Amino acid sequence: MGDELTLVVGLGNSGPKYEGTRHNAGFLVLDELADRVGGRFKAHKGGAEVVEGRLAGQRVVLAKPRGYMNNSGGPVSGTAKFYKAQPASVIVVHDELDLPFGAVRLKLGGGDNGHNGLRSITRSLGTKDYLRVRFGVDRPPGRMDPADYVLKDFSVVERKQLALELDRAADAVEALVSSGLEAAQNQFH
Fold it and tell me: Site feature Discriminates between blocked and unblocked aminoacyl-tRNA: at which residues (predicted)?
């Protein structure tokens, strides 16, 4: 990969009201990665909070778009432009209803699967061809509306395993950065 930069974006909603919610899984994984690079998030003119550092020996910028998930695209494309990161060097970490809690899946491109954060990013980047790290939050119980479900905190049982699962998702991001998609998929799928 040389010394080109990878932009790692975590999706979530800003503000204390949303901190521990399923929809903020991307932010939670980025907090773990920020600890690993030894940085603190700072406001950036691209519209995100960023940390610059090295992960697995590679240059990375960790970014949390400010504002609401549905409008993530502007901050992501603004930050990507500022750092001259091509869409193929962008990794988006997000919550995924279609995976069991804690499951991690990696892919390049694809649809947004009803995820408004991904829809916004695809529109702003002008392509679906960016990497995704999908963090499973499971389906809502019974007839609960998925939109309500993702804005709720993780359950007591999930919270007991959460740190471990977030750690594994951060490992998956590191593997993507250091060895690329195929090798990382073989390790984590």
Answer: 13
Domain tally, the chain = 1
Find out whether 18 is annotated in a ligand binding site.
Answer: yes
Q: And the tokens for 10? A: 């975590």
Q: Which domain holds residue 64?
A: 6-188
Q: So what's the pLDDT on residue 114?
A: 87
pLDDT digits (tens, 9 = 90+) for 128-186: 999 999 999 999 999 999 999 999 999 999 999 999 999 999 999 999 999 999 999 99
Q: What is the pTM of this model?
A: 0.96
Could you list the beta-strand ranges (E) of the chain: 6-10, 42-43, 48-55, 58-65, 90-96, 104-108, 131-136
pLDDT tens-digit series, residues 28-58: 999 999 999 999 999 998 899 999 999 989 9
Q: Exposure of 157 by Cβ count < 10 A (0-12 exposed, 13-18 middle, 19+ buried)?
A: exposed
Kindly report the CATH number assigned to the domain that includes residue 106: 3.40.50.1470
Q: Which residue's entry shows tokens 């919550």?
A: 95
Question: Which active-site residues does the annotation give?
Answer: 23
In a domain, 118, yes or no: yes
